[in-house]
Amino acid sequence: MKICIAQTKPIKGDILKNIENHKKLINLAVQNHADIIVFPELSLTGYEPELVKKLATTKDDKRIDEFQRISNSNSIIIGIGLPTKSEMGICISMILLQPNKSRIIYSKKYLHPGEENYFVSGKNLNPITFKNNKLAFAICYETSIREHVEKAFKNGANVYVASVLNSINGVDKDINRISDISKKYKMTSVMSNFVGKSGNYDCAGKSSIWNNKGQLIEQLDGSNEGIAIVDIDTEKTIKIQLEKNYHQ
Q1: Quick check: 194 pLDDT over 50?
Q2: pLDDT at 199 over 90
Q3: What pLDDT is stored for residue 86 in this prediction?
Q4: CA 150, 155, 158: angle at the middle one, nearest 5?
Q5: Most buried residue, 21, 54, 175, 177, by most Cβ within 10 Å?
Q6: What are phi and psi for residue 50, nearest 5 degrees?
Q7: How many CA atoms lie within 13 A of 15 on its CB side?
Q8: Is the separation of the CB atoms in 21 and 8 below 8 Å?
Q9: Is-contact 161 136, C-beta < 8 A?
Q10: Are 136 and 127 in contact (CB under 8 A)?
Q11: pLDDT for the residue 244
């Protein structure tokens, strides 16, 4: 199974432009035979808490229909970040588009202090099964919650997928934490992060892949968009970094 992480530079609050950028990176993943591609936290809007009331949507948003078509025709799972509406308020969510299946939502349950001013706690999904692997998901702060990763492990996950916004000041701490998770629970782990500016943060990039021994086996740089792919059976990786003028 090949897992791809995308490193993007978000365009503040512009879902349509971010969709176009996502499609270019998904195309690279498809060309390299990835089975799943995951984007950073709130990837289609950027991390913009003050804007979520007008940006929040649902998993059935017609703007993301093209992702479903890509998923169906290429047998690839696509995980995109969006604020979604729930009965209780707005959640930080990842919408998972699976080949020829209904869309499902993984929502952030454990909010970072301060996020409760804009978001509500959502519902985590149990690990999903694809090609005989069980993939557990985490959104940013959840990687620091012991109960969260232990539940994933107890539910049989062998792959841990973290969709994050990590700042320049905080990224190394999270890299060490996810390395420890990989080693302790014997899970292949990946982390997808932004570059550039999002919200009040200078994003650090360094999207990373660890094997199930906790060893860092691939990492993108701190300033450019791109993808990294790992074959979890062979631990062979592919890295594609894009030029800084990629949007132009």
Answers
A1: yes
A2: no
A3: 95
A4: 85
A5: 21
A6: -65, -15
A7: 15
A8: yes
A9: yes
A10: yes
A11: 60
Name 106's Cβ contacts closer than 8 Å, sequence gap at least 6.
79, 93, 94, 96, 124, 125, 137, 139
Which residues fall within 8 angstroms of residue 164, CB to CB, at 6 or more apart?
A: 40, 41, 139, 140, 143, 174, 191, 192, 193
pLDDT digits (tens, 9 = 90+) for 12-37: 999 999 999 999 999 999 999 999 99
Cβ atoms 235, 217 nearer than 8 A? yes
- Does the pTM of the predicted model rise above 0.90? yes
Please check whether residue 166 is in contact with residue 47, taking contact to mean a CB–CB distance below 8 angstroms: no
Q: In one letter, which amino acid is 91?
A: C
Q: What is the pLDDT of residue 248?
A: 30
Q: Which amino acid is at 199?
A: G
Most distant CA pair in the chain, distance? 46
Question: How many other C-beta atoms are found inside a 10 Å radius of the C-beta of residue 167?
Answer: 16
Instruction: Give residue-wise pLDDT tens across range 66-77.
Output: 999 999 999 999
State how far the Cα of 42 lies from the Cα of 19, in Å rounded to an integer: 12
Q: Could you give phi then psi for residue 31, rounded to 5 degrees?
A: -60, -30
Nearest residue to 181 via CA among 149, 208, 219, 155: 149
**Across all residues in the chain, what is the average pLDDT?**
95
Kindly write down the DSSP assignment for every residue of 147-203, as one continuous string: HHHHHHHHTT-SEEEEE---BTTTHHHHHHHHHHHHHHHT-EEEEE-BEEEETTEEE
Q: State whether CATH 3.60.110.10 applies to domain 2-241.
A: yes
Please choose, from the candidates 164, 141, 158, the residue with its C-alpha nearest in 3D space to the C-alpha of residue 232.
158
* Coil/strand/helix, residue 5: strand
